Give the backbone structure.
Amino acid sequence: MSRFAIAVHGGAGTILKSSMTSVLESQYLKGLEDALKSGYEILKKGGSSIDAVEAATISLENFPMFNSGKGSVFNHEGKHEMDASIMEGQFLDAGAISGVSGIKNPIALARLVMEKTEHVYLSGEGAINFAKKIGVKIEEEDYFFNEFRYQQWLDIKDSGAVKLDHSDKKFGTVGAVALDINGNLAAATSTGGMTNKQFGRVGDSSIIGAGTYANNKTCAISCTGHGELFIRSVVAYDISCLMEYKGLSLKEACDIVVHDKLVKIGGEGGLIAIDALGKIELPFNSEGMYRGFIDTQGILKCEIYK
């Protein structure tokens, strides 16, 4: 029997039910559910996992309550700098971009880097020039304006501090992983980074092997957390390696990396993962993670808290 499944996330961190209104909670859950359904419809019709993760991530990028695309936070200059990456597991093709402004859907640009260039990673002005050349959708600055995000920035813009999305411990990223009926895995991750970030800072979201990875032999991973620690731990690839070289299950590999190796160096956050059989894991070591999946049985579930 052909298996297919999909999972998405909208960030992790200090997300407490006590500080969440019922209205906000329902909005976040709907954002996750809409993204899942957009990707699942593609898989159900026999479409590819790469199409599914792109569609799901675009849905999340267009949802202003998550820190990516339209909902991206403000950097130190009061602008938006977005990062994204995408990878497919059959041929290990990948595309990534960082430090881009004005791009409506950074994940779509990352995919075009993968498919239309000989490169894996484009950054800054070069990535934006490539986007303009191939006709990627570009929006004016007011498209990305969000009063809540703006107030976040105003609160700390003169302090030199950075803020991880909604609070000091909220890691704003979105992503998706999927398995299609042909047994191909794919992963995608997109972020607006840190509020008040400076000096062209790049986190793990656009780095293949750190924040995003897919390999048909093992799994597909999309991470969300304190990017510096996820880069140092090469989190996404480490899980794949534990499966490929030590023969661990997806759950065993995720548990070691998220609940042991990351914790030991102070790395907070989580990830979504799917293996070649369609098994899904959504581990996190923070207080919460916006997450959801539709499994191989067609069961849909979205959650926020531990």
